[in-house]
Write a structure and sequence with these properties.
Blueprint lengths: L1 H19 L16 E5 L6 H17 L3 E5 L6 H8 L7 E6 L5 H4 L11 E16 L8 H10 L5 E4 L5 H12 L5 E4 L3 H9 L5 E5 H9 L4 E5 L25 E9 L4 H15 L5 H6 L3 E2 L4 H22 L5
Helix pairs in contact: 2-9, 6-11
């Protein structure tokens, strides 16, 4: 009798474990998500990050059968939204859209409240955006080599604009000067629109700008493209050579968007999110829209995107140090 009682006591934990155990071959991640997902956009509504997040979020909602809520948290060059995401519970119910700008911030701001690599987990790169090396039509240069020749012939005579100090268009101009062994003058603006206006007016000479933002002006003859900034030609303007192939090997500057979650989010949940995001990027009603806007759809693995972020931080940091760029 006593032996039977002891056996029953010993078997109680086993029975309880069996009651709450997940069936064989069905990981706990299959129960995710069971509630809405917050998708933080660290910039204002209506911009490229917002449009991208809404397109991807809508497809994620379809996949999961759960609402994906866009939460715009702008401020501090995108760092407020990133910090909120980094400090959120690592349960997969908060994700954030990261941009190439965030890979520049660590080199310009040593007091960031979060670490892009340590405090956030990569899920997938969504798109890559080339910049078009765009010049005023009066400039007597129709190739990258001819532009570099002009810059060398008249040091600190020609100007290039940017959307702001430390932005990717600034880094692109600095890298071109460094690789071309030429000196020219940087003119920062508060946003790309003002720089575009001054390029059309001939008040600056060159601007690295988006393909979609400059196409209409190029077609009307108010601007001229010379090349694209990425390592590969863009599907949005395949006739344009890359800056590297047109005369400056090693040149590569790319805008990009991707999705992150808080560090320590379970790998099974990261994998679930990755599949949904990749499916969204490659879907026939999302991918072509990105391409039409001048972006190249990507859809990478978490490991690939994590490596991409680390490489971008290192490369951008080197450009900033070599050019002596500071935040102020």
């Amino acid at each position: 009798m006593l032996i039977d009682q002891i056996a029953r006591i010993l078997l109680l934990p086993v029975a309880a474990a069996a009651l709450f155990a997940t069936p064989t071959g069905a990981p706990a991640a299959e129960k995710y998500p069971t509630k809405p997902i917050r998708f933080i956009v660290p910039f204002v509504p209506g911009g490229g990050t917002d449009i991208t997040a809404r397109a991807v979020g809508a497809k994620m909602s379809e996949t999961f059968g759960q609402q994906v809520v866009i939460d715009n948290r702008p401020g501090a060059a995108g760092n407020i939204g990133m910090d909120i995401a980094a400090k959120s519970p690592p349960d997969g119910y908060t994700v954030v859209l990261v941009s190439a700008t965030h890979s520049v911030n660590p080199s310009l701001n040593k007091n960031l409240p979060y670490d892009l690599v340590r405090d956030l987990a990569a899920i997938s790169q969504v798109t890559a955006q080339p910049y078009a090396l765009t010049v005023h039509p009066s400039l007597p240069a129709r190739s990258v080599n001819e532009l570099v020749g002009l810059l060398r012939a008249k040091p600190n005579f020609y100007t290039y604009g940017s959307s702001g100090t430390g932005g990717l268009s600034h880094l692109a101009g600095a890298l071109l000067g460094s690789l071309g062994k030429a000196q020219w003058i940087h003119v920062p603006y508060k946003g790309g629109a003002a720089a575009m206006t001054d390029l059309m007016g001939g008040r600056i000479t060159v601007l690295f700008a988006t393909i979609i933002g400059t196409r209409v002006h190029v077609n009307s003859g108010k601007m001229r493209w010379l090349a694209v900034s990425t390592a590969k030609r863009s599907s949005a303007a395949p006739e344009l050579p890359t800056v590297a192939e047109a005369g400056l090997p090693g040149f590569e500057i790319s805008g990009w968007y991707g999705v992150l979650a808080a560090a320590k989010t379970p790998k099974s949940i990261i994998a679930t999110l990755n599949r949904a995001i990749v499916d969204a990027v490659k879907s026939p009603d999302v991918g072509p829209k990105f391409a039409a806007d001048g972006s190249d759809p990507v859809g990478s693995s978490p490991e690939e995107f994590a490596a991409h972020i680390k490489a971008a931080i290192a490369k951008n940091g080197q450009i900033i140090r070599d050019a002596g760029i500071t935040a102020n």
